[in-house]
Amino acid sequence: MRISGIIIGALFFLFSSACQSAAEEGSKKIYGTAALMVVVEREDGRVAVFDSVNHELIGRIAGLGNLRHASMVFSRDARFAFVAARDGTISKIDLLGMELAARKKAGESSIGIAISRDNRYIMVCNYEPGGAVVMDSATLEVVKEIPAEFTLPDGSKSRARTVGPLDTADNLMIFALMEGNAVWVVDMRQEGFPAIRKFEDVGDTPYDQLITPDGRHYMVGLLNSDWMGLLDTWKLDGMKRIDVRERRGAIKKDGEKVPLHHIPHLESWAIAGRLAFVPAFAEKRVIVYETDGWTVVKSIPVSGTPLFVVARPGGREIWVDNVGEPGSNEERLIEVIDVERLEVKKTIDAGKGAIHPQFTPKGEAVYISIQGEDRIAVYDADTYALIKDFPAKRPSGIFSSDRASKFGL
Amino acid sequence: MRISGIIIGALFFLFSSACQSAAEEGSKKIYGTAALMVVVEREDGRVAVFDSVNHELIGRIAGLGNLRHASMVFSRDARFAFVAARDGTISKIDLLGMELAARKKAGESSIGIAISRDNRYIMVCNYEPGGAVVMDSATLEVVKEIPAEFTLPDGSKSRARTVGPLDTADNLMIFALMEGNAVWVVDMRQEGFPAIRKFEDVGDTPYDQLITPDGRHYMVGLLNSDWMGLLDTWKLDGMKRIDVRERRGAIKKDGEKVPLHHIPHLESWAIAGRLAFVPAFAEKRVIVYETDGWTVVKSIPVSGTPLFVVARPGGREIWVDNVGEPGSNEERLIEVIDVERLEVKKTIDAGKGAIHPQFTPKGEAVYISIQGEDRIAVYDADTYALIKDFPAKRPSGIFSSDRASKFGL
What we know:
The structure is a homodimer of 409-residue chains.
Chain A: H1 2-28, E1 36-41, E2 46-51, E3 56-61, E4 71-74, E5 80-84, E6 89-94, E7 99-105, E8 109-115, E9 121-128, E10 132-136, E11 142-146, E12 149-151, E13 157-159, E14 162-167, E15 172-177, E16 182-187, E17 195-199, E18 206-211, E19 217-222, E20 227-232, E21 239-243, E22 270-272, E23 275-279, E24 285-290, E25 295-301, E26 305-311, E27 317-323, E28 333-338, E29 343-349, E30 354-359, E31 365-370, E32 375-380, E33 386-391, E34 395-400
């Protein structure tokens, strides 16, 4: 009995230690999900997850496919993120368990992802094959394919590459057909997800879209037209045209023409109060529109060609990254525009290839990917001082989990 | 050895069962915190916490003091809620562990609570003793008392009852002195939390305040003046006066005069696009102002005297509760105003004492306290159909955790 007593004692110790360490591991990982910052490390097909209140790395989740031009949305409770990889891999990642929860293919080449207002479905826009697919958000099973066919000049049908989608307050999903020059509106509340509106001839080659922060208006950018499409999602009564010749000046040989390193995304447009801050095409300036009549208020010169133009929560500042020749000075610079004065008030030398500023939910700090230096920089948005630096492999897109409660993000 | 073998086997079974059930309990409770709905059950001094995606009760947390007129704010990651009870008890509740994390007294009678932009401090406004206190958000230790003294006619000093506070994008806290007719602005970034501005003679008896959804403007309501105060928090250059004689018509003997059952809170004003929907004082109507010049666009008749006037996310509808004589028909009714047409489009008979509609973050559902029937009702905001009902003891205030990333809420 002495031996067995020792064995029992030893077992007791082992089991209770095992229990305790499981509990400790559990308690170490307790955090709310409303202020997480998820950073894409594109070369490694993984994301890094940060606590953006205390600026601490929580962990990484790998195996997400080719994350060049990855996009991401959050479940309504921000427990999960859904990542669309360029190779058509859709990953559902668990931001509490820090692991992959599901992974499926949506196509061979995917470009965008959105979650339905009711949290039940994911929609993915594909380049290859064209069209869009609807997946169950629990399992990522494909529940519907929308081929998005358009008619070729010879009368035959072909699937269009689609861009988007975006979700609206009425639980619609909106996407555009690049080849079809059309915008489709799908009702996610109805059985079979019918396209309840198809707007034709919206302009030449839609390439990107946004929903205004108030959730009401949809806008689509067109590669080869001098306008943008504007749709009132409350009325769905037709696509208005907004003149963007000013924005496209460089292409039309006005202004200082510089190489177009990237096509600025519409999602990156900043709308602060009644002003929209829009990156010019292939020019070193940010154009300010007033959003009543979409007339130009001012052009603000910046150091490079702006890619992401982001409003600070509260709307007092606009932060702009600059792309340029690799190794140039301008690709190091983040510029801060004062919204009252409509001029650059601060230029931050953030490092080689600084892109994609993303604010914490209340805007006191900014996460920036310093792509050319394999690190993520965190800045104090009041003092413009570097607070913290994290090593990261070719970081690119940064997504704050407060997007979970925003339309079109 | 056989007996000890059995004992060892039994112990093994017991320990592994214990471990497993701990793990199961853990896994059962895994959820993100970005879409929780916290409902105050005022008679029982407790709150009920709901998953607002699946409309499921997660649990209850009790022992929170006198919750008549309780207010609540969330930590930045929405893991914690801070509840100010009327008796001065401040509770920090853990929405993941579903337990009380800390409890301290801020005074003998507290009226409002806010969390600093950096998540580090809680400020509480007190009626008794007057003034405000700053607490450490980790421990609830009081780190600063702000007596908020004003000068009496005889030259002596007294502590004013304060209302507020509200947090701004610049990490300021703003509160008003009821007796002092003043508004103070405290800088939460500076050592010692100095009041950096004190606006005097703002009007007779401030009673409530709000921050506009864009985070820029602060407004203060005045019990005995014909105007409201408006402060540009970017400039802090003085309190402008907004004429509210239209709103106060009933008190001035115009319009249909009915009993003022409750003073409508300013926080409950709905601002949708460029329109503000404001409950009239002691009248059965909602007044619509345009927020450029603060002129009246329209008065919309409703069934009772409106208390909470809430914009649906996306801004397409305004939901209004009605107070009235206990047992009256009007206190059962929730009215839905169409923002485009500026008229009531739907009246819902929700039950006896239906108050405090609160939308889920993307607005597809509404939680309503049916006070006179001891239940919480959940409505589909598209169809106006009752989705679900939960028993609850005298439910009152309802707070969605997406407030964690909003200024002044």
